[in-house]
Amino acid sequence: MPSRKPAALPFALALLGLAACTAEAGPTVSGGELADLAADALEKQTGSRPDLDCDDDSIIVSEGKEVDCVATSTETGAEYDATITFTSVEGRDYEISVEVASEPNNAPSEAPTSDPAEADTSAPAADANSIVVPAPEFAAAVADAVAAEWGAGNDIDCGDAATRTLYEGAIHSCVLIDVSTDAEYAITITVTSIDVEAGSFNFEAVVDETPLNR
Questions:
Q1: pTM of the full predicted structure?
Q2: 158, 170 in Cβ contact below 8 A?
Q3: In a structure prediction context, what are the per-residue pLDDT tens digits for the chain, which is 214 residues long?
């Protein structure tokens, strides 16, 4: 098996889904206690424990109630919106589900923005160039890029979109499926340059060292 190079992505939020757990509590719970409980659930499901901030106010526990929080990666510092929902409440017992956004709060959109870019961001300006490539072509390019480390023949899943819009600084997410073990690893792809006339592009691909389905 090839060696696994450490990568920046802390956990695969695009495929995270819902995680649940149960705890004893009274009619109210502090934001800190609720955040710890949700972080425990996420760590059990993903193997990575984010920092969760749900404020410090007391929260009334009631079925169906949603609490907005912020999940911060302890490895990259990226922040993601998170929603905790009380799914069941029986006396002092309650269950929660935790849903985390698939993209960080400061991530650029996949398509070029129509607003002028700020000087400290990688978002393209209004007149920035971009190219649209078929999703299979994009996935094949990613597969070629990681073949040296992971070997050829591994599957790359870049989602259901038919095309990918590429521009300098664009960030895309895919999943590498190791055909020898069926393990799945998140990949973060950052477009470093494009050539509109040639229809070509360059990018950097970072593969997470922790499988999504371990």
A1: 0.41
A2: no
A3: 444 333 333 332 322 333 334 444 456 888 899 899 888 888 887 777 889 999 888 888 888 889 999 988 877 788 889 899 988 888 778 888 888 887 788 654 444 333 333 322 234 433 457 888 888 888 888 888 888 777 777 788 887 778 888 888 888 888 888 888 888 888 888 888 888 888 788 888 888 888 886 6
Q: Which residues contact 141 (CB under 8 A, 6 or more apart)?
A: 201, 203
CB 186 within 8 A of CB 12: yes
Pair of tokens at residue 88: 């069941």
Of the chain, the end-to-end C-alpha distance in Å amounts to 16
Upper half-sphere CA count for residue 124 (Cβ side, 13 Å): 23
- Residues 86 and 145: their CA atoms lie apart, in Å, by 43
Task: Calculate the alpha carbon distances from 181 to 139, 199, 213 in Å.
Answer: 20, 35, 11
Sheet holding 51-53, edge to edge: 18-24, 93-100, 79-90, 66-72, 51-53
Please give the distance of CA 117 from its chain centroid, rounded to a whole number.
23
**Structural tokens at position 1:** 């098996």
Tokens of 73: 């990666």
